[in-house]
Amino acid sequence: MNVVENTLGVKIDEFLSRRLFCFLAQQSDGGPRLSPLWFLWEEGVLWNVARLSGRSYPERVREYPRSAVAVVDFDPDTGRVEHVGMRGDATLEPYNEARAGRLFERYLGTDRSDWPAMFTELDTDNYRLVAFEPETAVARDQSYPAPTTPK
Could you give the count of Cα atoms lying within 13 Å of 119 in the half-sphere of its Cβ? Predict the structure, then answer.
């Protein structure tokens, strides 16, 4: 991955290890589309679990692999605004239970008995993984002084 700019105070890998949402931007016949998603950053690839039925973005990955991803960490109380934007290609890959489990643990915790059934009783034939491989990245710290509140 070619890092075009990095003004973050941390490495991009460290930023992407935070439990945040990514936003997958794709072309479509009806114009651009944006999907907010959970993700797992492993070995330079951003992974997402995709349900095939009832979701349109897996088919867009097949038709239009060229994609962009944005990840933002924003805290209005502190003024933190950190952003990583990436461009690259997304592919639809076979479901991998171990990788999907690591992704779900990231958001739901390690005790799988506490997970909602929708994450433990998956029909894995109806799921795939989206692998986004970034070619370029821009990482920016656009934080501002924390606002003061009257007392």
Answer: 19
d(Cα 85, Cα 73) in Å, to the nearest integer?
A: 12
Q: What is the CATH number of domain 2-141?
A: 2.30.110.10
pLDDT (tens digit per residue) in 5-60: 999 999 999 999 999 999 999 988 888 999 999 999 999 999 999 998 888 888 89
- Degrees (nearest 5) of the Cα angle 10, 26, 86? 20
Residue 65, burial from CB neighbour count under 10 angstroms (0-12, 13-18, 19+): middle
Please list, in sequence order, all residues whose beta carbon lies within 8 angstroms of the beta carbon of residue 44, skipping any fewer than 6 positions away.
Answer: 1, 133, 134
| Amino acid in the structure at residue 60 | R
pTM (predicted TM-score): 0.91
Q: How far apart are CA 46 and CA 1, in angstroms?
A: 12
Domain ranges of the chain: 2-141
In DSSP terms, which residues pair with 86 in a beta bridge? Answer: 69, 137
**Strand (E) or helix (H) holding 84:** strand 80-93
Structure tokens of 93? 């890959």
* 30, 99, 130 from 64: Cα distances, Å: 13, 24, 13
